[in-house]
Amino acid sequence: MEQSTVRIISECYVTPQHVSDQSKQPYYLTTWDLVMLSMQYIQKGLLYTKPENSCEENLIKNVLDRLKQSLSISLVHFYPLSGRLVTKIEENPKSHFVFVDCNNSPGAKFIHAAVDLSVSDIVSPTYVPLVVQSFFDHDRAINYDSHTRPLLSIQVTELVDGVFIGCSMNHVLGDGATFWHFFNTLSEIFQAQGDTKMKISRPPVLEKWFPEGHGPLLNLPFTNQDEFITRFEAPELLERMFHFSAKSIAKLKERANTESNTTKISSFQSLSAFVWRSITKARHFPNETVTGCRLGTNNRSRLEPALPPDYFGNSVQTVRAVTTAGELLDHNLGWAAWKLHQAVVNHTDKQVRGFVNGWLDSPFTYQIAQLFDPQSVMFGSSPRFNMYENEFGLGKGLMLRSGYAHKVDGKVSSYPGREGGGSVDLEICLSPSSMKALESDEEFMSVVSADVF
């Protein structure tokens, strides 16, 4: 199966259905955006089965035509995604200004592809097949590459009995909340097509947040991209999806709160602590090895005053709990979950502004090799995002998968379970030896549930 290759059938660019005066102006980037320049694109997508008894040729043509039209309408509302990055460099003083230009861009990219594989070939293997990475554009690209690459690409890949719709969005333009806001809007417009008077339910808030006295053009004190841009190649990894039912997670939450003599630990903090301990045990670290657990955290509600929930762009940081491998495994689940709980509740307006002010004093960009260390666990994405309600004339998605981007040893991406109700799917990436050890952990596997399709 790994020999199967994805064939590109056609490519084109899609522009906004109409151009607003606002989109003719430069679109400036904030501290939270600029730190992402050396990171990779967000790559997420859904696999759908082809409806039975449908005329395949008409089905695919209808999906492609309607999706392109829906993309064109969506880009009216999310116009920065149709642009390209532009850099203005000055030598004295050293400065590097990066912003978005929507005037001199061909638009977002739309790709029609095919592969000689079945839905079962993607769903059935224990580990996510590498071919899934080919269901996305911008493989291995970093965000800075969008000076010459589209900021957004949609790839529709036909399988023998299914369709995969993958979206790749430049992480400088937005975080997970913005990615799924756009994807939700794309689906909403697709499902309402024909209604020319339709108003989308959640217009993006495009006005950028800058701390008082700063912006809209922020300076990177560099003259050469080599000073702040690096590229990352993932080590050998196994990637596997683990499903946790709402019932299993509820038991973990009850256990964590009981062991900590509290009621404040959340379901996700309990699950994250359980996975952190399980992965640390599987890695067989010496007791003195320092290990951490990072959780991606939305800053929108933490700022005072808060940003709107539909703020377009990046407004995310990570919070971290740190201990040694020995301490983590000597203590119970409740102890680890409480450390994560404290890290979350202590992330307030003061911490958010402290990060921003620190960046303004000494600008930098995240580097993947430094942000993810092989002794720790990093949780990204969120089961709170609306993923499975995105429909494109093919019924409900069967499963969610991601591309190559940000796959490192210890990366965990969290998604809602297909059946909903508080269930969670975790996409876990580990070295082969650690993955095998995790799968042999009876306590861990006893909490994992069978997939629900």
Automatic annotation (TrEMBL):
InterPro entries: CAT-like_dom_sf (IPR023213), Sec_Metabolite_Acyltrans (IPR051283). This is Uncharacterized protein. It comes from Gossypium barbadense (Sea Island cotton). The keyword Protein biosynthesis does not apply. Coiled coil: none annotated. One of its GO terms (molecular function) is acyltransferase activity. Belongs to the plant acyltransferase family. It comes from the Eukaryota. PANTHER family: FAMILY REGULATORY PROTEIN, PUTATIVE (AFU_ORTHOLOGUE AFUA_3G14730)-RELATED, HXXXD-TYPE ACYL-TRANSFERASE FAMILY PROTEIN. Pfam families: Transferase. Keywords: Acyltransferase, Transferase.
